[in-house]
Amino acid sequence: MSTVISTEQKKKTNITKRKKVIYWIFTVWLALGMLSAAIVQLIQLDGEVDMMLHLGYPAYFLVLLGASKILGVIAILVPKFPLLKEWAYAGFFFTMAGALFSHIILGDSFGDIYQSLLLLILTVASWYFRPGDRKITGGQ
């Protein structure tokens, strides 16, 4: 019987390890993508300003988006603070869903859409695979 229990425990441990590796792969990609987008937005490259105006948003909105993305990246990478992480994931989700929706409504090409779609997928995947110590539990 102890062999069965230890085999089950090994399977659970392997699944947990695998899930953590998947989480960190998606989270690092997400953090790098959001950070690079934030830098481009904060320095207001001409192409980024043109895209923002094309989408119908004011250029000054880039500063707000860039700063919030940097704060969100910090929130998801720093240990502890699960509630703050949930807010960061929600912010990323709504920001990228809004960008994706804006591009689709305007009939933009896949070349304009793929970045928003990729960051949206990475956000959901990172959130889904996050370890238990990065989740809000019922007692908190």
From TrEMBL:
Annotated TM spans: 21-43, 55-78, 87-107, 113-129
Compartments where found: Membrane
Keyword Ion transport assigned: no
InterPro entries recorded: DoxX, UCP030066
UniProt xrefs under Pfam families: DoxX_2
Highest taxon of the lineage: Bacteria
Keyword line: Membrane, Transmembrane, Transmembrane helix
Record membrane topology: Multi-pass membrane protein
Entry protein name: DoxX family protein
Source organism phylogeny: Bacteria, Bacillati, Bacillota, Bacilli, Bacillales
